[in-house]
Amino acid sequence: MAQSLIGLVDEKKGMLRSLGFDLRIVSVSDSKGTAVDVRGLNASELLKCKKSEWKGYRKYAAGYGALEAIRRIGSDVIVELTPSTMNGEPGLSNIKAALAAEKNVVTANKGPLVVAYRELVKMAKENGVKLFYEATVGAHVPVFCLVESCFKADELQSVSGILNATTNFVIGEMQKGKRFQEAIDEAVKAGWAETNYSDDVDGIDPARKLVIMANALFGEDAKLKDVKIKGIRHIEALVREASRQNKKVKLIGEITRNKGKLQMTVHPKQIPIDDALATVNEGNMAIKFTFKTSKEIFVSAQFLGPRQTAYAVLNDIVRTRTESIC
């Protein structure tokens, strides 16, 4: 996804300048080192040299790690895009280092926010910087900025949605008659699933997203263990039964209140064909918000791949310098 973001920054540079935003990439770190140029790295050159594993690229310093780069290289915004992990690392340490250095942070990494949401938000506030994470839940589906900007005077009561592109694609293939493993193989072939797809099909990825929403939108201090999770490895019978009843099966992540207590679940469910969520197919995602006054607000978006997530990250980068919420 980082490479998609670099390409998008290059593509949008004219538009960004027209908005008064002169965005320069001054460093890029991977697991082996860091490329640096405080005057601004060339995006096309970066992408080309990354593919060749930085061979002959004089601006790349092997062994110069991300933490050192965050602390030493002058920048206004740190973009943290390492993969989500159960303990939040290395993203958690990267984000803490950036906030401690009084740098704004934009991330698409769910792990650190699941493990230490309150701590990170507190650090950002104490250091007078911004922490944005719009891309962590639904790629470019507006979640936090939508609620924060459009429903300040309302009360959010529940959230439900299709929060994982891989499982939505896999279930769709199963509804066409494929068995689970055949559908997974098709998802990998089509680019919807990684070779290691356990976090997706076992419901861990959407569960992480629920935790982030519970903390950010409902003011909770939720953890992953608070989510009741059931994945899609054994749903062939459920899919067949849904077909007979003219329903669809979706892996639904839900946040509801029961007697004042917040409940979070990720379960495959049969839903009526006229439910808005039943219209969300392939690798697309959607969220249904229910408010006390505004009632139901449904938001969906076509998801084609990392470019959409990269856009959400880029929009958050712009937000660090503007007054607008979305």
Verbal overview:
By secondary structure, this protein is of the alpha/beta class. It has 2 domains: 2-140 and 306-319, Rossmann fold (3-Layer(aba) Sandwich); 145-301, Dihydrodipicolinate Reductase, domain 2 (2-Layer Sandwich). Helices cover 41% and strands 21% of the residues. The protein contains 14 helices and 12 strands. The chain has a 6-stranded mixed β-sheet with strand order 8-10-9-7-11-12. The longest helix is centred in the middle third of the chain and has 17 residues, at 110-126.
Short characterization:
The protein has 14 helices and twelve strands.
Strand order of the largest sheet: 8-10-9-7-11-12
Distance between the termini: 21 Å
Oligomeric state of this protein: single chain
Radius of gyration equals: 20 Å
Low-confidence stretches: none
Listing every helix as H and every strand as E from the N terminus to the C terminus, the arrangement reads HHEEHEHEHEHEHHEHHHHEHEEEEH
Mean pLDDT: 94
Helix content: 40-55%
Backbone structural class: alpha/beta
| Outline | globular
**What is the level-2 CATH architecture name of the largest domain?**
2-Layer Sandwich
DSSP strand content = 15-25%
Largest sheet: 6 strands, mixed
Compute the number of strand runs: 12
Text of the CATH class of the largest domain: Alpha Beta
- The CATH H-level superfamily of the largest domain is Dihydrodipicolinate Reductase, domain 2
CATH topology description of the largest domain: Dihydrodipicolinate Reductase, domain 2
- Kindly give the count of domains: 2
Count of alpha/pi helices: 14
